Write a sequence for this structure.
């Protein structure tokens, strides 16, 4: 039997730096990237647009199973039924709706196989909430990134401002705390570190330091992968 491709699971709450760190680590190693949050955001967007109530498990799971999605890695865009929804899935209404649909077990199981299909040679960096606990429990490296809620809100604020989106810091902070609570308290796949995850508090760290630390751990977990990458594929603003 062939060995499954290596996986690095990077989990944690919103704004902890997972998105940026995952992209940079994947670029350095030359591995594939799974942004699992984007899948929940796409289900939410499709539901909002189709008028499917966010508490209707049957219809939401059917939506999740039938989603026509494309990730364009070259320029970091996401298509839903051929339409570019890269910006639409990042707005606050979609963020809140994503965390609502993500609490529904039937939606999570509808997305599970889709996520596992991203595991292909030479390897996968998987960014999410339950990558190490549920989707890839055999990942050779599991990282759980955290940061204070104030710092996470500040990062999100800066990123939205840079995009010209006007937001209030206190409102962002409240919304992040609300999503954290919902993600951590749900019954299925709650946000928490796997017992075998390495927990890294990024509050006082630069993104370069976070990436360097993860690459050090990766070199131990998957020695063959170290030094095989392309040297990074640029940065993406943090989410
Ligand atoms: O990571 P991101 O902020 O894009 O995720 C959006 C929402 O999707 C999260 O608030 C969370 O509720 C949900 N999510 C999840 N499991 C994942 C990834 C995201 O429940 N693996």
């Amino acid at each position: 039997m062939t060995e499954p491709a290596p996986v690095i699971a990077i989990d944690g709450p919103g704004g902890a730096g997972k998105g940026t760190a995952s992209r940079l680590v994947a670029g350095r190693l030359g591995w594939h990237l799974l942004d699992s949050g984007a899948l929940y955001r796409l289900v939410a967007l499709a539901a909002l647009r189709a008028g499917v109530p966010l508490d209707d498990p049957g219809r939401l799971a059917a939506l999740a199973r039938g989603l026509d999605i494309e990730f364009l890695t070259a320029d970091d865009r996401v298509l839903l039924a051929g339409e570019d929804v890269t910006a639409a899935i990042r707005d606050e209404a979609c963020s809140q709706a994503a965390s609502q649909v993500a609490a529904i077990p039937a939606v999570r199981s509808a997305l599970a196989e889709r996520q596992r299909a991203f595991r292909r040679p030479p390897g996968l960096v998987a960014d999410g909430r339950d990558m190490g606990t549920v989707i890839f429990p055999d990942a050779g490296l599991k990282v759980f990134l955290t940061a204070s809620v104030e710092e996470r809100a500040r990062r999100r604020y800066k990123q939205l401002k840079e995009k010209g989106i006007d937001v209030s810091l206190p409102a962002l902070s409240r919304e992040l705390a609300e999503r954290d609570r919902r993600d951590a308290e749900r019954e299925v796949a709650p946000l928490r570190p796997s017992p075998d995850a390495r927990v890294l508090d990024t509050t006082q760290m630069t993104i370069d330091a976070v990436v360097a630390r993860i690459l050090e751990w990766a070199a131990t977990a998957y020695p063959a992968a170290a030094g095989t990458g392309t040297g990074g594929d640029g940065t993406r603003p943090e989410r």
The mean pLDDT is 90. The chain is about 45% helix and 15% strand.
